[in-house]
Write a structure and sequence with these properties.
Elements (H helix, E strand, L loop, with lengths): L1 H17 L7 H5 L2 E6 L9 H16 L3 E6 L6 H12 L4 E4 L5 H10 L4 E5 L8 E6 L1 H15 L4 E6 L4 H17 L4 E6 L6 H13 L4 E5 L4 H9 L2 E6 L10 E7 L2 H12 L7 E4 L6 E4 L7 H15 L10 E2 L5 E3 L7 H5 L8 E2 L6
Parallel strand pairs: 1-2, 1-3, 3-4, 4-5, 5-11, 6-7, 6-8, 7-15, 8-9, 9-10
Antiparallel strand pairs: 10-12, 13-14
Length: 364
């Protein structure tokens, strides 16, 4: 009897395995992956942090009950970031997305203390066994925005409100200037450094000053919607950044340069769940769907819209290169010779400003 029973049980187990029933333990399939996000500003309804929080929500929609997310907003770069990262790791989060360049060093320090936790440092460049980095080619969208700005400006002067002069910001300023001057060689771009990412009052003050100085197109690399609000009120063109900001500049948003993080983050959490997560460095752009331009305001000429969308297709296809030479810096030195295109390493280490940029010394 026991011999027959054993044979029956073995046959049942073989059938279950063939049908995929015995694939994993119940605990492995029912325990959600815990994922956390850390933000440098409040979660507003548009802007840098909004786009990262939209990605978090996209993760929840795509992965459902297999993931549990949390986030902490308004975390200052530096010691406070270390404290929050430790708290998130101790709370059992298995993967943490940090969303500001200034979080890179705190993440490097905390990651050594929690080798079992995976850290995704967004906009950083230093990796470790449990630290991956990812960034977006913002400069591609900036170049396209510059083309639009060059077409609509009447004063030949654009204003640019900036947080910090880190490489990704300098890339954006230079690409915007190159795009603008590709269709309007007389164009100039005037920069104001704020040395902080999020201060709506100072952002608005800088925008107002630039408009008073004659800028009829504004761009910015800060965290609030203050610049679009100021531009709309004065009837000046503005480039929405991070996300669509037509809510604040319905008439005068020339276009927006939008960042899309969701697909990347979904893929990284899936890799962790499947045991495939590895440290890496990713730099995606228009071609990969990480950056796009569009969301034109209702006063943007149709011809400008059509030109920008056509050039975006060319960029995605590799037919348009924002940093194709010759390009000189504002001191006249040749940075990218004719017939050459800047390599990724050159772009990532960019520490100079191109001809056509008017700015105080970096960060002053």
């Amino acid at each position: 009897m026991y011999k027959n029973l054993a044979a029956t049980l073995l046959a049942a187990l073989a059938l279950s395995a063939a049908q995929g029933v015995v694939a994993q333990t119940p605990a492995a399939s029912s325990t959600p992956t815990r994922a956390a996000w850390m933000y440098v500003t409040p979660v507003t309804d548009a802007g840098w942090t909004r786009q990262h929080d939209e990605a978090r929500r996209q993760v929840e929609r795509a992965l459902g009950n297999s993931v549990r997310t949390t986030h902490v907003a308004s975390v200052a770069e530096g010691p406070d970031a270390e404290r929050v990262l430790r708290d998130l790791a101790r709370q059992g989060n298995q993967i943490i997305f940090t969303t500001s360049f200034g979080y890179m060093e705190p993440a490097m320090k905390v990651a050594r203390e929690f080798p079992q936790v995976k850290f995704e440092v967004l906009t950083g460049y230093r990796q470790a066994a449990n630290i991956a980095t990812a960034n977006a080619r913002y400069y591609e969208g900036r170049y396209l925005a510059g083309i639009a700005a060059g077409r609509v400006t009447k004063s030949n002067l654009a204003g640019y409100v900036v947080g910090f002069p880190i490489p990704e910001v300098l890339q954006g300023i230079n690409a915007f200037t190159q795009g603008m001057r590709s269709v309007n060689p007389k164009a100039q771009v005037r920069v104001i450094w704020l040395n902080e990412w999020f201060n709506p009052a100072r952002e608005r003050e800088a925008a107002t000053l630039l408009m008073d100085q004659g800028a009829d197109v504004l761009a910015f690399h800060t965290g609030s919607t203050a610049v679009p609000v100021a531009a709309q009120q004065r009837g000046r063109w503005v480039i929405g950044y991070h996300s669509d900001m037509r809510k604040y500049a319905l008439d005068y948003q020339l276009l927006s340069v939008t960042h899309l993080w969701g697909d990347y983050e979904i893929g990284r959490i899936k890799a962790l769940q499947q045991g495939r997560w590895q440290s890496q460095n990713v730099w995606n752009g228009v071609r990969q769907g990480a950056i796009r331009v569009g969301d034109f305001g209702r006063k943007v000429p149709a011809a400008v819209q059509q030109e920008v969308m056509r050039r975006q297709q060319e960029l995605a296809a590799g037919k348009l290169q924002p940093f194709a030479g010759p390009i000189r810096d504002r001191d006249g030195a040749l940075r990218i010779p004719a017939g050459q295109t800047a390599a990724d390493a050159q772009v990532q280490a960019m520490n100079w400003l191109a001809q056509g940029v008017q700015a105080p010394p970096l960060g002053k």
